[in-house]
Write a structure and sequence with these properties.
The structure is a single chain. By secondary structure, this protein is mainly β. Helix content is 13%, strand content 35%. It has an eight-stranded antiparallel sheet. Strands 1, 5, 6, 8, 10, 13 and 15 form a seven-stranded antiparallel sheet that branches. The radius of gyration is 24 Å and the shape is globular.
Length: 271
Amino acid sequence: MSVRRAIPSAANAPILRSMKKLTLAFLLAFALVPTSAAATSNGVYAKWTIKGSDLTARTRTGTIKFGVAGIPNATFKVAKHKKDTEPVELLTSTGGGDWLTGTTPFGAVFGRSGPSTKVKYLRVGEDTLDNTNRTTTKITFASAVPAGVLGIAVADLDVDKVIIRAKDASGTYLTGSQLKGTATHNTFNFCKVTRSKPTNCGHDTAVPSWLPGATGATVMGADVTSDGATAWMRPNRSIKSITMTFSGFRSVSTHSYRTWLAVPKSPSFTG
């Protein structure tokens, strides 16, 4: 049986032409949306700068900016107990080989940090041979960052540890619980991902231990060489300064760790 196709009448022609124009306009608008829009993150990673060109200087200083309304700028200082040959430097994921994907707990909140030629992180290295040699990194904000806003991630903690202490505007230390704040699954391994695995990742995916205390917390590696071992925090108290004291607990030739900072694009200030 044949089917006769209905032929549009002259009266319906203007309506059909209007529908075709609307359809074409919709398709063009959809096509012009940037493909990166689907990957737009909810967060902004810190913009770091560092002074001087001597990567192995005993002291290195720099600035941290976010460019988000209500979030203060900061300065940082890295000081070593002895001058060694390991660098303190700013790297991008494409240059350094490390990044946080959108499937990591940190990336799920603030978006992925790489692969990118722009998002930077601070790498602190030292020729640590025992627990007596420590490197201190202090970040000081121009004013207190409101509670529940700042994201802090420290990584590559395998045969080493970092003691993290933070103060509020009054100079009071945050407890380990306050420092962790709203960070869920706050220890993880950024190498344990199925997509966009960082280029520095090997086979080990151990996670560090989070040891909270009355005046901060200690992140202790699992004594396994795992580049992606990470801890992250989102303090539920205001933050005026952060001090991270880094050292190794097993004798290897060199040690290092990485730090990322991020805030939401549109922070909801809770006090």
